[in-house]
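Example record used in the benchmark description.
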Amino acid sequence: MPTGLSIHVGLNKVDPAAYDGWDGKLLACENDARDMASVARAGGFGDTVILTDDGTVENITGELRKAAGRLKSGDILLFTYSGHGGQMDNVVGSDDEPDRLDETLVFFDRQFLDDELYREFRRFEEGVRIFALLDCCHSGSAIESLQGLLTPEALQSQFQTRDPDQVEAASRLMPLLKQQEIFIRDRPFYEGLQRELKDGDGGRPAPAAVLISACQDNQVASDGDVNGLFTANLLEVWGKGAFLGDYRTFHRNIQKRMPANQSPNFYTTGNPSDGFLKQKPFTI
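Model output (structure tokens):
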């Protein structure tokens, strides 16, 4: 019988010492991680929950590498993340980043590049199924778009504020000015990391992964009092296991419940088999 392992990360804040005094306080991310762990546990996954202070690069990559060492072809990894998202310049250039921007997950001690997560997924044996759910923002220009495109009523509905300047506080977007400051401060480190990631992957095949993220690259994701908006609607669609469709249907049903200015994204890497894509989510 296949094995299922899950890792659930929820950060309600980050280390101010690592982000020049910014603590990135959020409300619902730890709840998201616990609730997604409950879903995984009910499906038979072995679950690991990583919350706030423990959400460091070392701890998260350590758990991913433990899972990579255990899972074999036919097994499945579930990875969920709730917290801030951001972007930074891709200073070395990349074929898969035509806008020359890297999306980031804002871990407790530093920003974690999307290509770093992809590298961790590459460590898994070929044939391991990977399902990732990211409840965070992925845009460095979203606030500018919101100011021009959204009415005060739309802002109130999604972010409980009519003031575009307050959207950063009501969403999971790392403040744009802070993104720029941290990148300038740490540019040599990230430039070296981007060059390292670009230079090669050892010829390992692309992981067969399905990702559903909270929003498009030009949107921001809402936090909440209990769960993030994306996670809350995901849990409603899942219905404690009553949902019976496949991954694409799961995504579409979540998308139908979301506001137009936060539309969850669905994409795959590698070559997930039809058998994988047609399974009910959270199926081992």
